[in-house]
Design brief:
Elements (H helix, E strand, L loop, with lengths): L1 H26 L4 H16 L33 H4 L1 E5 L23 H9 L2 H11 L10 E8 L5 E9 H5 L2 H9 L11 E8 L2
Antiparallel strand pairs: 1-3, 2-3, 2-4
């Protein structure tokens, strides 16, 4: 009987030890190697996310450290002799002005002074310069020569007939049509005679 009880106690202690060992095993932290691997994977995922934005590009010799250099500026357009040849477009200003019968008394009016003409013309000078700028091949290309604008002022003060002489490259880019639209809108005081006016512009 005593032997039976002793065996029962030993068996109980053994079973309790087994349960305690199982409890300790389930509560233990995961192996360090796995934790390190997970951290490395997380770090590698975060490392792959690069911020988007802009990077200033160095100019000149400073770009030799691996940063791409700025693109070279485009060279100006090379103009040929044909591009620079003066070309006149517009109306024939040599024809005499038409005198209407109801304007016969206008002969008593004085001729327009240069100051009167300059005052009206200066009001549109910025628009004319804009026409010349738009007709250039590009803003950097130097076009030598000059642009000469001629027009007839009728006795009534309106403009009839516009002629523009300029380098051919400007004329091909619509210079005459632009200037004619500006000068044709000019209005002057009535005068005793028609006048042909010429305004030269030196290109720079």
């Amino acid at each position: 009987m005593k032997g039976f009880l002793f065996g029962l106690v030993v068996a109980g202690l053994g079973f309790g030890g087994y349960l305690y060992w199982q409890h300790q095993k389930s509560a233990a932290p995961p192996p360090a190697a796995k934790t390190a691997d997970a951290g490395a994977a997380t770090t590698s995922k975060k490392a792959r996310k690069r911020p988007r934005g802009a990077v200033r590009i160095a100019r000149g010799p400073a770009a030799s450290d691996g940063v791409p250099a700025a693109e070279p500026e485009a060279e100006p357009v090379r103009l040929s002799a044909a591009d620079l040849r003066p070309l006149a477009q517009g109306d024939d200003l040599s024809t005499p002005d038409v005198l209407r019968l109801d304007m016969a008394n206008d002969k008593e009016l004085p001729e327009l002074s240069q100051d009167q003409i300059d005052e009206r013309f200066r009001g549109q000078e910025s628009a004319i310069l804009e026409c010349i700028a738009r007709a250039r091949p590009d803003p950097e290309t130097y076009v030598p020569g000059r642009v000469t604008i001629k027009f007839r002022i009728q006795r009534a003060g309106s403009v009839r007939g516009v002629r523009v002489e300029a380098p051919a490259v400007l004329q091909r880019n619509g210079l005459f049509g632009c200037i004619k639209g500006v000068v044709g809108r000019l209005r002057f005081p009535a005068a005793g005679t028609s006048q042909i006016i010429s305004y030269p512009f030196t290109l720079s």
